[in-house]
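Entry: Membrane protein
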Amino acid sequence: MKPFVYTGLALIAFAGNSVLCRLALGAGQIDAASFTWIRLLSGIIVLAFILIGTRSQTTSSDGGSWCGAAALFVYALTFSYAYITLDTGVGALVLFGSVQLTMILAGFLRGHRPIVLEWFGLGLAFSGLIYLVSPELSTPSLMGFVLMVVSGIAWAIYTLVGAGSSNPLRATSFNFFRTTPFAVLILVLTITSAELSTNGVLLAVASGGVASALGYTLWYQALRSLTAIQAGVVQLLVPVIAAFGGVVFVGEAIAWPLVVASSLVLGGVCMVLLAKKKTV
């Protein structure tokens, strides 16, 4: 049962990041830049303790990379700014839809020959994302949509960079450590305009120290028992969990456009993943 527990808790943590970020930024309890650097530094501290605690069990020299750290920072920064205008479920849908589409595209660029079902699935998923924002193209939500797409692409790059890691926990920890100069730079550049509250800071700490650091650790444990196809599919549950969390904790309403867009995007991506499985 452990793989199921690890997977379930990791997915809840991923969705929790969306809920925590929306709670903090949607209510104006903290500014996006402060949320980002507090989240990253909190993750660094927690991962440092985890790494020290498991040091006797880790013999790998895998220390991550600056490319992975840069992708992680871009993901975290655009994630925060996107949630100023996006609802919880919409943000998670765009994020993980973009992640999966980017990883699928990377497979195409690496020489994978797409079949008709894969092209149809990609078209279906993209139509869902377009439908999601088309009624509001003239509003600030378009900027939130674009920022979250960038965040999803960055997270996909981070995942692809670390796909061959011999010790994912160690690599992720050191990637977090390498974001320190970026986090400090954001702090210095925005300190005079920072908007902080006790609740906002606590939400950022929870996002970085619990939902991110511990969530990623649980996810790496789960990946030991999941195939690549299974890992891709189960992540598609995150937008649904996040939307439910937004309804429960943020008081957001479930709108039909979100339901339709979710069906199109998730259906399209699942179609591509199933098509890839048939070609293996």
